[in-house]
Amino acid sequence: MEYDDSFDDYYDDSMYDDEDLEKMLAEYSDFDYGSEMEYGRISLWELGENCLYPTLQQTVHMLAPLYLLCITTRIVCAVGYSPDDAEPPIPRWLLNFCISMGGLVVLQMFFGYNIVYLLVCAASVYVILLLTSWKCQNGSGVAVAVFIFLFIVICELFLVEEKAWHSVRGAQIILSMKVIGLGFDISSGVMPLPSVTDYMAYIFNAGNVIFGPWISFQDFKSIYSTNVSKCLSLEWMTKVIKSSVFSILCLSFSTCFGSWIILDGNYKWVRAYRDAQSFRFSHYFVCFVSETTAALAGISPGDIEYGVTVTRPLSVELPRSLVEVVTNWNLPMHNWLKTYVFKIARPHGTFLAVILTYIASSLLHGLNFQLAAVLLSLGFYSYVEMTFRRKLSRIFDACLEARSCRENCPHTYKNNHPYIWITNLAFGCLTIFHLAYLGLMFDSSVEAEKGYNMSHTLQKWSDLGFLSHWVILGTYIFHLMV
What is the DSSP letter of 82? Predict the structure, then answer.
């Protein structure tokens, strides 16, 4: 099959698992406002007193120790910094030990004794990397990937109680992405097998051990290159403050203001949009928290000294297409899937690469029917939208593709043409409709603590008549007829 480079941007990176704080969010989203909330709004004062204040208080109580350990990591790395030709003030192994101990303390704070599953997984992977590097280095990536997926399946189905596994699933996803990426980097010769202490510092860094974001081992090493004079730079402080403020705003909207603005007495599709948007804003909250922790710990990609961009909410809330939604939902995961799944599988055919990418994303998130149903639906939706809009773009010689055209594109009719602008706006509204439908079932019910089952998902979609699926099926049939 001839490779079409437009597929580089088509694969699922959508549902990053942001349910680490879901239990906390559920406590406040289930707050009983009484019958008044069904038909009228309580006052802002009551909303702040009964929802906003306790939510923020609980969040500060939970995140303050994490932020403190992250900033401590950055300071320790800055103190241990030395130019390449100078003797380091702190031995590298001791510096790595301090970094990894900070991450283990964070894991203990959040998960208690459940961290044993993460420790066993990380230790087993390093043994696999040692053996494959000794005997068959080219197979390191595949060996680690197979082990991770088997480990997830065995833990979820046989070894671990549902609620306990669900609580550590977010951290397990981050760990899985780190070790699989590391394995494939070793296989391709990008880097040698790191030492035990380097490996521990990478896997258990406080800056991204809980909420992420994923970052490659090569980029992670930039944590050692910050000296004391750069430790508290203006750009770094701006990034920390900006991400912290956005995280608070997103949490406040998700937990309190969304249900206050759109009441339960509204039309069912309006309520569906509200509930799906509440889930999306809880995801943005976790993403901005991960940006904050990464910046505080000094984690940054490439030559950027002040942090990672994890999500772009405006591109999701005001989308051009579903393709742009899955791209901007979680940028580090987007890059990970593209680098370590899609591109590796691409020589065997683009279609197979796309399928394997969705399978990998589903398995990373666990054996959960709801997530698998959403991911597979989103994959089909995105594919139909992309091929349909590409065909329309060729027919009308216009900028109608799922991804926005470059300024020098050869199309006769550009994005600023009135008819093209209206058409793209209509596709954007259709995307919002699909997002409301797909995100509806990610609520704060009791089942959220152990994962949602098949009946929960089907019931939610059945209440809306499976309308979104019918619409996308009609779109696909129309696409074949054009």
Answer: -
Using one digit for the tens of pLDDT, what is the confidence trace for 232-264? Answer: 778 888 889 999 999 999 999 999 998 888 887
User: Which residues, in sequence order, are bridge partners of residue 398?
Assistant: 413
- The per-residue pLDDT for range 287-299, each reduced to its tens digit, is 999 999 999 998 8
CA 410 to chain centre: 34
> Quick check: 211 and 289 in contact, CB under 8 A?
yes
- pLDDT of amino acid 235: 82
Among candidate residues 337, 216, 212, the one with its CA nearest the CA of residue 287: 212
Note whether 186 and 133 are within 8 A (CB). Answer: yes
Write out pLDDT tens, residues 133-148: 888 888 898 999 999 9
Better-predicted residue by pLDDT, 13 or 109:
109
Asked whether residue 226 carries a pLDDT value surpassing 80, the answer given is: no
Q: How confident is the model at residue 393 (pLDDT cuts 50, 70, 90)?
A: very high
Known catalytic residue at 417? no
Helices (H), 155-210: 162-187, 196-203
Look at residue 454 and tell me whether its pLDDT is greater than 80. no
Query: Among residues 365, 434, 456, 479, which one is catalytic?
Result: 365
CA–CA dist 104, 115 (Å, integer) = 8
Separation of alpha carbons 316 and 318, rounded Å: 6
- Using the 8-state DSSP alphabet, how is residue 192 labeled? P
Residue 452 pLDDT level (bands cut at 50, 70, 90): low
Q: What is the pLDDT of residues 429-442, one digit of tens each?
A: 999 999 988 887 77
- Closest CA relative to residue 463, chosen from 436, 430, 431: 436
- The three-state secondary structure class of 413 is strand
CB 350 within 8 A of CB 7: yes
Show Cβ contacts of residue 108 under 8 Å, excluding neighbours closer than 6 positions.
115
Distances (CA, A) of 293 to 38, 57, 222, 228, 420: 38, 18, 15, 19, 41
- The pLDDT of residue 86 is 63
Where in 53-123 does DSSP place strands (E)? none
Calpha distance 351→345 (Å, rounded): 9
Measured between alpha carbons, how far is 44 from 50 in angstroms, rounded to an integer? 10
Q: What is the distance of C-alpha 401 from the center of its chain?
A: 25
Q: Torsions phi, psi of 103, nearest 5?
A: -65, -40
- In sequence order, what DSSP letters do the residues of 118-170 get, joined into one string? HHHHHHHHHHHHHHHHHH-GGGHHHHHHHHHHHHHHHIIIIIS-HHHHHHHHH
Sorted by sequence, the CB contacts under 8 Å of residue 66 that are 6+ apart come out as 106, 109, 206, 210, 293
Q: Quote the CA–CA distance of 147 and 376 in Å, as a whole number.
A: 24
